[in-house]
C-alpha cells in the first residue's frame, strides 16, 4: 500500500456554540470534559484535537457510538461543516484555504460522499440518477449516460437502468447512491454510515460490494460506522472515537489485541478474537525439525484459519512468508490468542528459515 497520505488532518476541532473560536486555543477550556464545557461556555466540542492521515488505497474507518463526533468529522474533510481550528489537506493542498471554486471542484471531482439517506431524485430513472453528478460537471448527455451505464453494471444493477427509485428495494437504492458517487471517478469515497438503515442480509451484501470494489479498483475510502463488526470487516485501519476524540487508531488486530484503555477493551470484549487476530500474534520460533514439516499458513492468516489447519494435520503449522518459514503455531499458542492470554512476540524475534 502506498503510504502517501490523501487526506492529512492535524489538530482538528469543530465546536458548536457561542464564541466557539475561543475554545481550541484556551488550555483551560480544552481540559474540560463535555458536560463541564457546555455548562461553562454553552459550547459543544463535536471534534476535539483530532489528527490522522488517510493513506492512498486504504479503507480508513472512523468508528464510534452516536454522538462521538464521527459524522461531523467526515463532513469537515470537505467543509460540508466548517472546522473551528486545525488543518486539513488533500494531496498536500490546504482544504481550509480553498476558495468557493476550488471547494466545488473538490466535492465534484476529488471526494464523493455516500450518505445513509440515499437522496435519490424520485422523478429520475436509475440511469439519470447515476449520471447526475456528471451532468453537474457539464458532461454531454450521451457521454454521461454511457459512463453511468458502465458504473451501473459494476455495482450489479444492470437491467434496472430505466426504473425509478420508488421501484427499487433499499439495497438497490443504496447501490444507486454508490454508483452515483463512483460515476464521477473520485480520488476518495467518503461513506457516512451508508448501510445502517438496511436489513442485516442486505447490509452484508453491501459490505461485500464495498470490499469487492476496493479489491478491484484500490480506491481510497473513508468509512464512518457505529458498528464494530462492520469496522473490523472493512477497515485497513480504524480510528475509534469517544466524545470527539480519537481514543485509539490502529489496524483491526491492534484494536482487538492491544486495546488502548478500558473503554476500548470494553468495546471489543465480545469480538471473536480468532477471526481478527493473525498467526503473527501466536507464532514462535521453529525448531530445526519443524521448519520443513507440517501444514503451511500465511503470516496474515487468521487464527481461526490456523486452528483449522492444525486440527486437520494433527501437528503444528509452519508460518511461511515468501518461501521462508518465519515461525510455527500449535494448538496451545493458538488457543492462548483466543483466550487473550498470549502476548504478541516483540518485533524482530522471528528467525527466518528456508521453507522446504
Task: Kindly list the characteristics that best describe this protein.
14 helices, six-stranded mixed sheet, globular, 22% strand, single chain, alpha/beta, four-stranded antiparallel sheet, disordered C terminus, 356 residues
Description:
The radius of gyration is 23 Å and the shape is globular. Helix content is 36%, strand content 22%. The strands form three sheets. It has a six-stranded mixed beta sheet, with helices on both faces. A four-stranded antiparallel beta sheet has the order 2-1-4-5. It is an alpha/beta fold and 356 residues long. It has helices at 27-30, 34-41, 70-77, 100-110, 126-130, 132-137, 141-154, 170-183, 200-217, 228-234, 252-257, 262-267, 303-313, 331-339, and strands at residues 5-16, 44-55, 59-63, 85-90, 93-94, 111-115, 188-192, 220-225, 237-242, 245-250, 296-297, 317-321, 324-329, 353-354. The chain is built from 14 helices and 14 strands.
Topology as H/E string?
EHHEEHEEHEHHHHEHEHEEHHEHEEHE
Task: Please indicate the percent range of residues in DSSP E strands (runs of 2 or more).
Answer: 15-25%
Question: Shape from CA axes?
Answer: globular
> Helix share of residues?
25-40%
Rg is: 23 Å
- What's the β-strand tally? 14
Total number of helices? 14
Stretches with pLDDT under 50, minimum 5 residues: 346-356
| Overall residue-averaged pLDDT value | 87
Terminal-residue CA separation: 29 Å
Question: Major sheet, described briefly?
Answer: 6 strands, mixed
Content-based structural category = alpha/beta
Major beta sheet, strand line-up: 6-7-8-3-9-10
Family: Belongs to the ABC transporter superfamily.
Organism: Streptomyces massasporeus
GO molecular function: ATP binding
Pfam families: ABC_tran
Amino acid at each position: 500500500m502506498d503510504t502517501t497520505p490523501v487526506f492529512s488532518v492535524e489538530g482538528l476541532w469543530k465546536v458548536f456554540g457561542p464564541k466557539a473560536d475561543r475554545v481550541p486555543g484556551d488550555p483551560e477550556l480544552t481540559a474540560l470534559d463535555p458536560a463541564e464545557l457546555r455548562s461553562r461556555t454553552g459550547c459543544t466540542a463535536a471534534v476535539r484535537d483530532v489528527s490522522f492521515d488517510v493513506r492512498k488505497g486504504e479503507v480508513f474507518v472512523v468508528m464510534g457510538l452516536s454522538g462521538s463526533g464521527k459524522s461531523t468529522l467526515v463532513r469537515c474533510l470537505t467543509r460540508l461543516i466548517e472546522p473551528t481550528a486545525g488543518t486539513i489537506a488533500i494531496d498536500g493542498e490546504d482544504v481550509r484555504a480553498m476558495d468557493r471554486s476550488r471547494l466545488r471542484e473538490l466535492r465534484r471531482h476529488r471526494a464523493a460522499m455516500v450518505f445513509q439517506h440515499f437522496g435519490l431524485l424520485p422523478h429520475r430513472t436509475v440511469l439519470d440518477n447515476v449520471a447526475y453528478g456528471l451532468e453537474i460537471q457539464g458532461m454531454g448527455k450521451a457521454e454521461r449516460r454511457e459512463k453511468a451505464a458502465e458504473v451501473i453494471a459494476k455495482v450489479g444493477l444492470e437491467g434496472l437502468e430505466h426504473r425509478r427509485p420508488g421501484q427499487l428495494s433499499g439495497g438497490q437504492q443504496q447501490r444507486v447512491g454508490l454508483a452515483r458517487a463512483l460515476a464521477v471517478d473520485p480520488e476518495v469515497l467518503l461513506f457516512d454510515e451508508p448501510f445502517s438503515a438496511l436489513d442485516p442480509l442486505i447490509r452484508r451484501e453491501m459490505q461485500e460490494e464495498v470490499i469487492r470494489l476496493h479489491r478491484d479498483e484500490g480506491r481510497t475510502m473513508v468509512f464512518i460506522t457505529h458498528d464494530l463488526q462492520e469496522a473490523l470487516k472493512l477497515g485497513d485501519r480504524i480510528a475509534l472515537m469517544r466524545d470527539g476524540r480519537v481514543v485509539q487508531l490502529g489496524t483491526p488486530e491492534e484494536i482487538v489485541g492491544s486495546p488502548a484503555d478500558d473503554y476500548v477493551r470494553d468495546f471489543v470484549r465480545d469480538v471473536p478474537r480468532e477471526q481478527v487476530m493473525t498467526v503473527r500474534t501466536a507464532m514462535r520460533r521453529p525448531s530445526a525439525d519443524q521448519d520443513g514439516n507440517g501444514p503451511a499458513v500465511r503470516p496474515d492468516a487468521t487464527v481461526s484459519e490456523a486452528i483449522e489447519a492444525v486440527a486437520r494435520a494433527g501437528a503444528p503449522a509452519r508460518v511461511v512468508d515468501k518461501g521462508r518459514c518465519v515461525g510455527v503455531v500449535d494448538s496451545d499458542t493458538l488457543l492462548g490468542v483466543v483466550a487473550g492470554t498470549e502476548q504478541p512476540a516483540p518485533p524482530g524475534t522471528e528467525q527466518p528459515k528456508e521453507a522446504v
